[in-house]
Amino acid sequence: MTELCDETAVDLRRRIGNKEISPVELLDSCIARTEAVDGTLNAMVTKCFDRARDEAKVAEQAVMDGDFLGVLHGLPVGIKDLESTEGVLTTFGSKIYADNIPEADQVSVANVRDEGGIVIGKTNTPEFGAGANTRNLVFGATGNPFDPTKTCAGSSGGSAVALAAGMVPIASGSDYGGSLRTPAAYCGVVGFRPSPGVVPSESKPAGLLPFSVLGPMGRNVHDTALLLSAQASIDPRDPHSGNLDPALFDPMHEADLGSIRVAMSIDLGAAPVSKAYRKLFNERTDSFRGVFAEAQDRDPDFSNIHDCFEVLRGVVFVGAHGERVKNHRDNISPNVVDNVDRGLLYGLEDVARAHVQQSTIARNWLSLFDDVDVVICPAAAVTPFPHSDWFVSEIDGEEMPTYMRWLALSYAPTMAMACGAVLPCGLDDQGMPFGIQILGAPGMDRHVLEVAASLERVLAANPATARPIPDIKKL
């Protein structure tokens, strides 16, 4: 028998509105699951259960009184520990902020609460979101629910694990070089990277750079879109916020895949991908490529992508964390130190060249959509690795030149300012979740979600590509 905590967010919200279930009993189910499995997984690193129980009682009374109910009314939510939460410990995964309790919610969290979401805790993240392994010096490592000795990726790993294990039906994430997408792939859930500004981020240190975004995660596309509809708003403190497409808030309609043109790319023409994952991607896409109007094998033009990414990421990290590394070097994780140190080696000419390269990359990406509707590629380059390793240092014997290079499948679209969804696509040859990306041009958020929702149904009908579910009893 399915427990409430395992049901979809859309169904749970409908049942709350119909008075079939109470927000209190749903919260109790999520808390019970968290207490049962999180000792093994370490995903919900700060819990605010008492306050959540009080809010659930208020939400229950609002239903009984016939009050207006927000789109997330009564739904438990996990918030990534990079987002400030009023009255709830927010560490950013850093020892420097180990006792930090914000006085106010940042706007993305306030939007979720305004729509009735009940925050039950903060989910683990690497320090300041640096790196695709959710491990930090405050809380330690978060384990993958399919094998707790392996990584759940990062930096939104705690949210992905909480979803996969049934602790919450929806959770927030953020994404720069794949911080939301890679954990979704490694944990068998859905993640969506919105276009810049769709979910405002008013406190980014380098606000003019559009690459870091906030976004939603869920166990299916409809749940993920539901959370996005609550997170999204316009806030002038984020210079990329504005001109929000009203269609983003419409009920989800699934795309007619028979009219969709797809570019299939095994490595985006630039990313390292293991031989095992290349073979698996070809096998999995061969099983469903016939559902589209056209599925061509085609790589985007991501010339100079690696230098462009490294330099501009260096600009962000030196600006955001340069003083922290200078003053607290011994208390900061190696990924943050590495980013800052490498960033300081670049000069003005390097930065200027990277901005020109990024503009070319973004324009080339846009031109691709003259001929196709979406791009499909793998969501990760390798199978999940032991979380005792900070990152992937080599692939099939090839040494990675930086700790980020193995993430090129996700950071290349970031440089193009793409929006994209990750869908679970069965298990790999190691018994770990495998995921694919569905990518679009900036501003195509609704279209990408609709294609992803339709493709999700196709994948679910095939046992080899259906969303994998971890064995909760083993946890």
Topology:
Elements: H1 9-17, H2 23-41, E1 44-47, H3 49-65, E2 76-80, H4 107-114, E3 118-123, E4 135-136, E5 140-141, E6 143-144, E7 147-151, H5 157-164, E8 170-175, H6 181-187, E9 190-193, E10 213-218, H7 221-231, E11 261-264, H8 275-286, E12 294-297, H9 305-328, H10 334-343, H11 348-368, E13 374-378, E14 394-395, E15 398-399, H12 408-415, E16 419-427, E17 433-440, H13 445-460
Helix pairs in contact: 2-3, 5-6, 9-10, 9-11, 9-12
What class, by secondary structure content? alpha+beta
Which strand-content bin applies to the residues? 15-25%
CATH superfamily grouping: Amidase signature (AS) domain
Give the strand line-up of the largest sheet. 1-3-2-8-10-9-16-17-13-11-12
Q: What is the arithmetic mean of pLDDT? A: 97
Q: Report how far apart the termini are.
A: 18 Å
Helix segment tally: 13
Series of H and E elements:
HHEHEHEEEEEHEHEEHEHEHHHEEEHEEH
Oligomer: single chain
Task: Find the count of extended strands (DSSP E, 2+ residues).
Answer: 17
CATH fold topology: Amidase signature (AS) enzymes
Q: Can you summarize the main beta sheet?
A: 11 strands, mixed
Q: Work out the radius of gyration.
A: 21 Å
> Can you identify the CATH class?
Alpha Beta
Query: Which architecture name does CATH use?
Result: Alpha-Beta Complex
Low-confidence stretches: none
Count of the separate structural domains: 1
Helix content: 25-40%
What is the molecular shape?
globular
Give a structural overview:
- The protein is of the alpha+beta class and 475 residues long.
- It has one domain: Amidase signature (AS) enzymes (Alpha-Beta Complex).
- The chain has helices spanning 9-17, 23-41, 49-65, 107-114, 157-164, 181-187, 221-231, 275-286, 305-328, 334-343, 348-368, 408-415, 445-460, and strands spanning 44-47, 76-80, 118-123, 135-136, 140-141, 143-144, 147-151, 170-175, 190-193, 213-218, 261-264, 294-297, 374-378, 394-395, 398-399, 419-427, 433-440.
- The strands form 4 sheets. Strands 1-3-2-8-10-9-16-17-13-11-12 form an 11-stranded mixed sheet, sandwiched between helices. A two-stranded antiparallel ribbon has the order 4-5. The chain has a two-stranded antiparallel ribbon with strand order 6-7.
- A hairpin with a 3-residue loop joins strand 4 and strand 5 (140-141).
- Helix 5 (157-164) runs parallel beside helix 6, helix 9 (305-328) packs across helix 10 (334-343) and helix 9 (305-328) crosses helix 11.
- The mean pLDDT is 97.
